[in-house]
């Protein structure tokens, strides 16, 4: 990959985007558009269709027909695999273009975006394509004279609603297993991260995915997303985003056809550092990256640092030094370690959390401010807040920005109590040289993933999903197929 091309790619005009419905490109039924504002400089990048209810219904009808007539759902797994592998190749061939386009739209630093966006999507699609012709049904251990077969059948039409951070990675976590399983999909990207998902949907058609199997409709959550959630023709709804939207989706399911709803929601993930952490400098570096990369806009970000009191001051001092040396700024510069905040609104929300902490007497050790205003973009300095109390909003609620809340603890029990003291349960980490303690903490912390002596970086082979108000269901790994393949029993009397 020739990253010297970034400078050229960042200047290319971006044509107005269009929905991908039934294998063709469409404007909104009423012609309305929404501006795509780049967080790099606050300027308009292009426009998206402001999808209408009619657009969403057209996409759902297309997906329903495609599923029911078997053009994809009844293809052999080996045939589906072939198309999906071709799709992955086409995405890989355009990885740099896609990464730059995505960064111009959502502000993630390019070094991270390259790995976490197109290349992650490619790996995910290949993983599920390769897996689908190796999944077998079951023969039940029944009594003589009977036979019980357990088939796995594609679950039907999938509605997928995804957020603005990592649209390709999270999108592919849904699309890879859903399409491999034989489902048809209506995908609704976030308002501020739609362009790359539209592009890869076009590439899917080029790869031979039949029309109607993958539809992408852009627009507002309350219109397009709500139409998908309320539809009687959507069988499964998969979602990554905020808890507030997750609740609405569950209500919509209850009001409509009781479609299954799988939610991947937010977190307030604890990063627990014991005094016997094997390498304090490594813990400092990984802790800073675990909250400040992508300006904290990472669902599993380690937003709460719980640090043993005996090393609290020295750890915070090292963390301050490391964080202040991070390069925040132009996300298209490969040297940047934290890019832009996604939107003006998100930046405002981040600053409000800091203002509230300051007003409550908490100490802002570093950061807490908007920076690089002259660019017109949305940038925030990595922010460390100490003295945070367990009931503070900063300890309980997701900021989704580069703001770290620090709390000391004196014992393992206290660390567990603090770690488990929120409604969330997405991710966590424990830093210790004590193997027994590490295992104990993994068991005692309520989270979908507990890292030991690291933070983040888990690969596709393991599931990602939360407990508590961080959601249900899992992306990644073979377990993801459970959402898209229904079990059907055939019972024979022989
Ligand atoms: P959001 O809930 O506002 O939006 C997510 C998606 O839902 C968008 O596509 C949006 O248009 C749509 N939506 C909004 N209102 C809707 C409605 N009424 N009906 C249907 N759809 C609607 O979340 P966001 O701000 O885009 O994303 C940030 C959130 O996502 C954070 O809370 C973050 O933690 C979470 N997240 C979780 C994971 C995970 O795997 N658990 C990963 C990434 C992000």
Task: Note down, in words, how this protein is organized.
It is a single chain. By secondary structure, the chain is of the alpha/beta class. The protein has two domains: 3-265 and 471-493, Aldehyde Dehydrogenase, Chain A, domain 1 (3-Layer(aba) Sandwich); 270-459, 3-Layer(aba) Sandwich (Aldehyde Dehydrogenase, Chain A, domain 2), CATH 3.40.309. Helix content is 39%, strand content 20%. It has 17 helices and 21 strands. The protein has a seven-stranded mixed sheet, sandwiched between helices. Strands 9-8-7-10-11 form a five-stranded parallel sheet, sandwiched between helices. A three-stranded antiparallel sheet has the order 5-6-21. It starts with 5 loop residues before the first helix and ends with a strand. The mean pLDDT is 98. Residues 161-165, 170, 188, 190-191, 221-222, 225-226, 229, 240-242, 245, 248, 264-266, 299, 398, 400, 426, 466, 471 line the site of nicotinamide-adenine-dinucleotide (NAD). This is Aldehyde dehydrogenase PuuC. Pfam families: Aldedh. Its EC number is 1.2.1.5.
